[in-house]
């Protein structure tokens, strides 16, 4: 058998050549997979941007087509919410400054004149502000559920206020019931989803 010099290679495969070929294949595979991943990410990002642009165009078109009755109803209920919040704050401040009556702050002749009565009225007005505020936010989002919520609040609160007969309560009832009627106009109902 001829002797090999250190510079010559044997005709058979040597172990370090197998590792080198495997490392080369792995490197090529990794680079190909990285390139494919980058291309897929670029495509997904482009599709996401196109989808978002289409949604923004659709939202702009919807906003341009918003009926006037919906715009009025939105402002109406936002102002009504603000009025209830102000009334709740006024009752709360009045309750803090009210004199303590007999029987631990409860006067059976005029319970609303005592601190406890003021706090109860502040709580009720606060709940109404919260309910109308929730309905107003739903109305801003063009949700059909806003109509049911705000109409329910208007009827449940407005009818007893009319029966009570006080002029300020009557005005508040008219505001609530007019706002509820505004929600039932056909252009507004068609626009809500």
From TrEMBL:
Specify the superkingdom: Bacteria
Region: Disordered, residue numbers: 1-63
Which positions, given as ranges, span the membrane?
75-96, 116-139, 146-163, 169-188
List, as start-end ranges, the regions of compositional bias called Basic and acidic residues. Answer: 33-60
Name of the protein in its database record: Uncharacterized protein
Taxonomic lineage of this organism?
Bacteria, Bacillati, Actinomycetota, Actinomycetes, Micrococcales
UniProt keyword list: Membrane, Transmembrane, Transmembrane helix
Compositionally biased tracts (Low complexity)? 1-11
Please report the organism this UniProt entry assigns to the protein.
Answer: Citricoccus muralis
């Amino acid at each position: 058998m001829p002797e090999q010099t250190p510079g010559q290679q044997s005709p058979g495969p040597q172990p370090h050549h197998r590792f080198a070929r495997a490392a080369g294949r792995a490197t090529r595979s990794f680079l190909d997979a990285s390139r494919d991943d980058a291309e897929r990410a670029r495509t997904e990002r482009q599709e996401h941007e196109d989808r978002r642009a289409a949604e923004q165009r659709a939202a702009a078109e919807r906003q341009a087509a918003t009926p006037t009755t919906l715009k009025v109803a939105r402002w109406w209920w936002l102002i009504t919410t603000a009025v209830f919040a102000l009334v709740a704050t006024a009752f709360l401040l009045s309750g803090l400054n009210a004199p303590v009556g007999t029987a631990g702050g409860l006067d059976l002749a005029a319970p609303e004149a005592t601190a406890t009565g003021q706090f109860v009225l502040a709580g009720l007005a606060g709940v109404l502000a919260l309910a109308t505020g929730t309905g107003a936010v739903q109305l801003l989002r063009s949700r059909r559920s806003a109509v049911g919520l705000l109409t329910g609040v208007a009827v449940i609160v407005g009818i007893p206020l009319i029966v009570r007969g006080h002029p300020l309560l009557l005005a508040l009832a008219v505001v609530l019931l007019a706002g509820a009627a505004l929600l039932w106009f056909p252009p507004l109902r068609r626009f809500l989803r």
